Amino acid sequence: MNPIIPAQNARFSACIKVVTMLVCGLAFGAASLFATPLDTEPADLLNPGPADLLNGVAEDSLNVEPADTMNTRTVDMLNGKPESDVDTGDLSDRNMRLTQDAIFLYGDRSIDEALTRFTGVHLLPDTGPVVRGLGPMAGGLYNVSVNGQRLASTGFETRRVDLGRLPVDMFQYFSLMNSAGVERSGDAIAGSIHLGLKEPETDQLRLNASYSRGVHSSYTDILHPENQATLSVSSRYGENVAFTAGMYVLNMHRASERLQIEHGAFDFEGDLRDVTESLSPQFGTVSDLTRGAFFNVNIDGGERADFFASGFANISDQGISRHTQRYLPNEDWASPDETGLVGNRGVLEYQLDVDESALTKAMLTTGGNYHRDNWQVSYQGGWSYGGRNEETISIPFQAAGLNFVSERANPARPELSISNRDISNQDLRIQPMRNVMIRQDEHVLSARTDVSFFFSPGVISAGVSFNNTSKKGNYRDSGMRLLALSSAANFRQMSIDNFRLMQTDAYTFQTLVSPSDARSFFTNNYSLFRKDLRNQILVSDPRKYEAMEQVYGGYLKTEMNAGAFDITVGARLEYTDGKYTGNQVLFNDIGNHVVTSDTTVANRYLHILPDLLIGYQVGTGIRVVASWSQSLARQDYRYLTPFRLVQLQNQTLQAGNAELAPLEADHFDFKIRYANDSGSRLHLGAFHKIIRGLIRTNEEEVVFNDDITLEGSFFERTDEALLVSGFEVALRQYLVFLPGIGRNLGVAGGYAYTVSDYSPVFRSGSYPFPGMSPHVLNAALFYDTSRLSAQLSFFHAASYTSVIASEERFLPSLGGLVHADRNRSGYSNLNAVVRLGLSSGVDIWVQALGILTQEQTEYTGSGNLYPWLVDAGDASLYHAGLRIRL
To answer: What does the pLDDT read at residue 55?
Structure first.
């Protein structure tokens, strides 16, 4: 891994013109949405084009007559059947769906990027997708399945599936269910994400191969070009067996710049002034090498039966390097001016973090369907695995006895410069190091059977399922000291021309240690390090755990049709039998480790989850849907692990709680959808969620061994409910009123407005839920013919609350003692993609991704008053590729 160099300024004037074009296009599209289509339409207009992504609806999903909704083969979607085998009316009532070809025109390469094309979904930095205001900050509130098989999680102490390292190349469709039906797992407060592997294409042997290469607009000295290659074959064996199989390689590189600022206050003889307590410029790189293979087999068992088998394996190796330089002045300020001299006991720190991780995901599933004239049975069984191996090495250096001069003319770019002497690499002495190793393995075994009975007014469906999840996490955090003198001068240095972090010379790094040299140093000298075994046990043993959860499920539902009305009523029952193992760790009254022993606690609970959906067909092409359902989300393992850490020296006890019940939620949805034969689509929706059971930390006195009173810290569910509400608008419109080739132009858009009411236990009042952007916008302008496809895509998420402060602090510019809640500024993205068919079997394409490079700021008050964190945008990426189909 290598450091980065500063990103170039974005060409904002050109971007403003592009955004203006998109807004105008959306306005034209809205104006023409209900226009009468021309009699002489291009054939392409009858096939949903790339703009389906913003609506997230399947092909012809809105052209649903009342009778069609009763032909729902719900179990087919659960069993991973092809898109054509799934009733699209049911999908559009519950789901939003994208195809891989559509995602390609957005330029997205990973699943989490692709999900932002669904209305109302955005990404949190370094975490993942936020669905309707809920996501990683609220825990693993959505589940992910491939061809009906639930994926094992890859989060160490969480239930999160890392979608950022799962490429789009092996999938045919992507589906997001905002509210789960009873036939699906109830573990879906934020929704369910369903992915479908590529299906066989034709009855004849077909070979598909593609290759692309990309370069960055900046950081070119240290970021390698990106590469992406796929190879797949699809054919039929005999008359009954169709299969597809493929493999892929994706090599991605990213760079980042960050400035962390710690603001404080100092009393200059009664005059309270803002000061910079610490300043930490940081830069780093991320390199991902992902490779994998997949297969999908469909077997036609005759007129009444069919079978399938599918699977994939995905391995992602990631390397991260972070260089951080910290200016830490002493707080004894010597001048009453805002620009003044700091005391003479400050320090300069430099730290290099090298993180290497391997993420493994795998899945196998098989099943089938048997159907008669008035009933059908579907069955499926499968296995999935999620593994994480991660190691982080932190090597800090420090120089002390420094005076700093502070400059705060621009609070977003404060400066601290050394005033009393020059610093060399020899002055930066190595400090105690840190080595963190994480290992987690999760296996999921599942089986299910569904049966449906068809009769004149509707369908009755029932099913049973079993899901067994076993997870084990191992954690080791080691502090160590080198038993010899060493400094940054003993390490090989990196050399980067014209290095300017944050476009300024104020944050010049004193040293740039080579990450590869640091890794070698750590490996070669490991025997010379003195380990802090006491602290290792203290911080590591409580975080080791094992978990086993068995979920037995069953459901019953009926779908009835009465003229223009249809109704779905059902309920799901889930019984959970969980066993959780953690460590009990004891330190005596002089701070020495006494014993570590494991303990296992069982937790069993039953949930009944009702579901109601009412639909009404208002003439041709207009459908109104209202629904209510309930779902749950099992708590993260970090809360459920029954660890207990007792430190008699400082009289504290910390413990987990394996008896925590899941989060529970009520979902209310209302939708109006319109479609016509010219390709117009309009979706209006409103939703409301009531979520109960968020976790808080409770502190109270406890008695240990009958005679020792300790300050205890425990996890417990809160009584307060989290309320999330919003509305969504999405449209797609070909500009059929334009003459000539202009009729192949189209616009698409999706907008979501979300609000929340969150009452934290440590503060009075209600606040927005952290991580939720209130305004999320997608917009696209596309051109689509049989040979040429082009699309310009814009995305924007508005600023949102990122931290709700639990304690007050002095911030003079805000009037004194305040809760320093933090907001994070919004972000935008602009991609452009052009694909040209040279012949029936050869395509070429070019992509410009991340055209808008920008900064994001985490701040209190306003972006330029108290900025705590400034992140610079990644470099733009330009890709060119070739695809051959034989």
So the answer is: 35
d(C-alpha 474, C-alpha 537), whole Å: 12
224 torsion bin: left (phi>0), alpha (psi -120 to 50), beta (else):
beta
Q: What gap in Å lies between CA 113 and CA 122, rounded to an integer?
A: 9
Cα 443 off chain centre by: 21
Separation of CA 521 from chain center: 34
Burial class (CB in 10 A: 0-12, 13-18, 19+), 624: middle
- What is the spatial distance between Cα 173 and Cα 58, in angstroms, rounded to a whole number? 10
Q: Which amino acid is at 821?
A: D
- In this structure, the number of other CB atoms found within 10 A of the CB of residue 649 comes to 11
Give the angle subtended at the CA of 282 by the CAs of 281 and 288, to the nearest 5°: 165
Contact 179, 669 (CB under 8 A): yes
Distance CA 209, CA 341 (A): 64
Question: What type of residue sits at position 663?
Answer: L
Q: Which residues of 30-50 are buried (b: 16+ CB within 10 A; e: fewer)?
A: eebbeeebeeeebebbeebbb
Q: Using an 8 Å Cβ cutoff, are 749 and 779 in contact?
A: yes
Neighbours of 829 (CB within 10 A): 22
Establish if 191 belongs to a structural domain. yes
| Residue 215 covered by a domain | yes
Whole-number Å distance between alpha carbons of 58 and 99: 8
Does residue 10 sit within a domain? no
Tens digit of each residue's pLDDT (9 = 90 or more) over 516-574 = 999 999 999 888 899 999 999 999 999 999 999 999 999 999 999 988 999 999 999 99
Q: What are phi and psi of 112, to 5 degrees?
A: -65, -35
Nearest CA to 724 out of 694, 753, 751, 690 is that of 690
Count of structural domains within the chain: 1
Rounded Cα gap, residues 228 and 210, in angstroms: 8
Nearest one of 586, 630, 638 to 610, comparing CA atoms: 630
Q: Give the Cβ contact number of residue 527 at 10 Å.
A: 6
Q: Between the CA of residue 100 and those of 108, 146, 430, what are the distances in Å?
A: 10, 14, 50
Q: Cα–Cα distance between 100 and 95 in angstroms, integer?
A: 16
The CATH number given to whatever domain includes residue 271 is 2.40.170.20
CA distance 781 to 18: 10
Classify residue 55: in a domain, yes or no. yes
Kindly report the pTM of this predicted structure.
0.87
Q: 144 and 135 in contact (C-beta within 8 Å)? A: no
379 φ, ψ (degrees, to nearest 5): -145, 155
C-alpha–C-alpha distance, residues 832 and 386, integer Å: 34
Residue 277 near residue 229 (C-beta atoms within 8 A): no
Q: Are 98 and 52 in contact (CB under 8 A)?
A: yes
CA atoms of 396 and 523, how far apart (whole Å)? 16
Rounded-to-integer distance, Cα 67 and Cα 95, Å = 19
- The three-point CA angle 714-720-725 to 5° equals 130
CA-based Rg of the chain, rounded to a whole angstrom?
Answer: 29
Q: What is the pLDDT of residues 854-886, one digit of tens each?
A: 888 999 987 678 999 999 867 788 989 999 988
CA distance 236 to 221: 48
Helix (H) or strand (E) holding 98, with range, is strand 95-99
Identify the domain containing residue 870 by its residue range: 50-885
CA dihedral 89, 95, 100, 101 (to 10 degrees): 50
